[in-house]
Structure formats: structure tokens, C-alpha cells
Amino acid sequence: MPDVNVLRATELFASLSEAALAKIVTTGSTHQLERGDTLFDEGAEPDQIYVVTSGRIAMVNRSIDGRESVVALMEPGDLFGEMPLFDGGKRSAEARALEHSEVVAIPYAPLRRLYQRHPNELWGVVKLLVARLRATDATLADSVFLDVTGRTAKRLLELAGDKDEFTLPITQEELAGIVGASRERVNKAISAFVRLNWITLTDRRYTITNREQLTIRAR
């Protein structure tokens, strides 16, 4: 059975009573994924939401010609797959593991029953959707106000977190999908950071040597 604290930490479940959350937890299951495993495909029929407990999950859209865009990166504590619970639609993106990952899956049915019986609990849904909207607004602002180099700097800082040394958990093709540019342009930006001695790079191992300048470039 999933850890109740994992669900409690999400916007969707944070306000649930102990009794209500305990019932939801008993319906959940835990799934292990290896890098490249697909949790669900774009356009698939949905019946569960997911919470990441470890690893990273990419939400991916594909163009007609096969190009990929990583529209969101889900990390530990993040919840995803909730939209069809409320609109009855199909999956809007593919969910694919970028590394060894673990997710908790919760069926839609008990959640629908909960919200029908206790509509006041929908405030958790509102908070979640507001967070999604803010993230979308931020991504749109980045695409308007930041060039590829700036977006690359920002994504590297996000992937590094508070660490100056980190291993890129994704390929440069996947990084390009997150940045929203071609791999060649993202590689050019990274090469510029190396020449400026803002980062050093060995294989996929990055060291941030000038976080201040990298942060300024990401604004």
C-alpha cells in the first residue's frame, strides 16, 4: 500500500481528512519503471492519476513528423494524469520514465465518489489547477522573453537544483525537447557556457562554476 504521506504532500490531497485520505490510499498501487518505459500513451483511455515518489517522468507530445516536445517534467512529489478525471477526455501527452522511477497510481473511481459526496474537497483541485496554470504562464513567458540560450541556462539550473555538480538525467535530445529548440541550438548554448567557464562538462556530468552568471543569463 502506498505511503499516505506521499499523497498528503500533493495539492490535490493536502486538505483531505485523515479518514478520507486513508480510504484513497487503500485503493492505490505502486509501480516501478525503468528508463524509457511508457506509463501511458498520448490519446490513451485514462483511469488513474499518478504521484512520482522517485525518479523523473517526462510528459511528451509528438508532432506529425515525429518530433518530440517535453511539455512537463514530473519529479518526486509531483502529481499528474488528473485532467481526464474531470473532463472525461483522453490522455493529452505520453508519460515516459527518464530514469529508474517509482509512481503511485490512484484509480479515478474512488476520487469521483469522494468529490460527489464532499464537493468542498474540490478546493484541492482548484489549487492544483491554479498551480498548473501558473506553470503554463511561466513557460509561455519564457518562450516569449528568453532566447534558446536563456531557456537552456534556466533548464540546467532547474535540473541542478541547489547542487553545483549533477548528472543530467536526460539525453540532450530530451533536454532540447524541454527547452523547446533543436538539439543543435541547445548544444551550441551549452558549448558557449563551457567556453565562458560558467560550467564544465564531462560526458553527462555537469559542474556549475559560475552560478551567478548562469542565473543572470536565465532571466
Helix-strand pattern: HHEEEEEEHEEHHHEHHEEH
Computed Rg: 19 Å
Helix content: 40-55%
Count of runs of 4 or more consecutive helical residues: 9
Instruction: Count the domains.
Output: 2
Mean pLDDT level: 88
The N- to C-terminal Cα distance equals 43 Å
Oligomer: single chain
Structure summary, number of beta strands: 11
Instruction: State the low-pLDDT regions, or none.
Output: none
Largest sheet: 4 strands, antiparallel
Strand content: 15-25%
How would you explain this protein's 3D organization?
The chain has 219 residues and is of the alpha+beta class. It folds into 2 domains: 4-142, Jelly Rolls (Sandwich); 146-217, Arc Repressor Mutant, subunit A, CATH 1.10.10.10. The protein is built from 9 helices and 11 strands. It has helices spanning 4-8, 18-26, 83-87, 108-117, 123-145, 148-160, 172-179, 183-195, 211-217; strands spanning 29-33, 38-40, 48-54, 57-62, 68-74, 79-80, 94-97, 101-107, 165-167, 199-202, 205-208. Helix 6 (148-160) packs across helix 9. The longest helix has 23 residues, at 123-145. The chain starts with a helix and ends with a helix. The mean pLDDT is 88.
